[in-house]
Amino acid sequence: MTRRKLPVAKSKQSPDGDATIALQTDFLTRSAAVQPYDIALNEFQARLAIAKAIFEQQGDGGKAGAYNAILHVIDFFASQGFPLTILTPLSAIAEAMIDAERGASNPLLQQRRRGKAGAPPASVGQLVIEGQLAVITECCVRHFQQEGATPYVGPATDAAVKLVKESNWPIDPTATNMREIRERVRRLVGTQSPDRLVFDALMNTAGAKKAPLAFAKQLLKSALSERLPDTFLQNP
């Protein structure tokens, strides 16, 4: 991977000592685009498609694809006249990825120390998938409720498992998995946990409200973009 370094933003001190206003003025000023927007956008999309293919097929855990995608984002905005200094946070992420590959320390990717020993927390990607699984089960539950089934939770959970196993998702859940994930995510109401955020966003759509079973089937047609650990859905 080619390392690309962008200039670091520097404060411009104003006479009254207020650096914030000067920085904001610089960041909100754009130069003329070096490439027409439509052409740049088409190239940007094509490059992101290639980066996604690399992300999925390179065999390095997605590192090269993610790195290339970040560079393409930087190049696109730079082509539209955005000042390079405002793109420094993106450049910093790309550089942190290189540092991690080299084994060098970088504060951006430094893990927080956990107060208690034990298993590491689930990744955001894993929580997003669990949020989607909770949505699938919840949609089945609401469908069975609408159909007047009694009881409905057990049959709905079994239906959710069947839907997942018939999909292209590389997941083999049990009814217990699906029930427990739904119950756990439902208890997170009012939190900012990624799984709950996904759950709320999807369940509040018109499709989930009007035709929950069809919505669950449609959700399972989408590609599962996250890489899950081998231990996903396995009992400890």
What does this entry look like structurally?
This protein has ten helices and no strands. With 236 residues, the protein is mainly α. It has two domains: 19-109; 124-221, no CATH class. Helix 5 runs antiparallel to helix 10. The protein is globular. The protein starts with 18 loop residues before the first helix and ends in a 15-residue tail after the last helix. The relative contact order is 0.10.
Mean pLDDT: 82
Quaternary: single chain
Span of the ends, CA to CA:
37 Å
How large is the share of residues in beta strands?
under 5%
Q: Give a count of the beta strands, DSSP E runs of length 2 or more.
A: 0
In one word, what is the shape?
Answer: globular
The stretches of 5 or more residues where confidence is low (pLDDT under 50) are 1-19
Continuous helix count: 10
Q: Spell the H/E element sequence.
A: HHHHHHHHHH
The gist of it:
This protein has 236 residues and is mostly helical. It has ten helices and no strands.
SSE blueprint and pairings:
Blueprint: H1 19-27, H2 37-57, H3 63-79, H4 88-102, H5 124-146, H6 153-166, H7 175-186, H8 194-203, H9 206-210, H10 212-221
Characteristics:
globular, mainly alpha, 0% strand, 58% helix, disordered N terminus, 10 helices, 236 residues
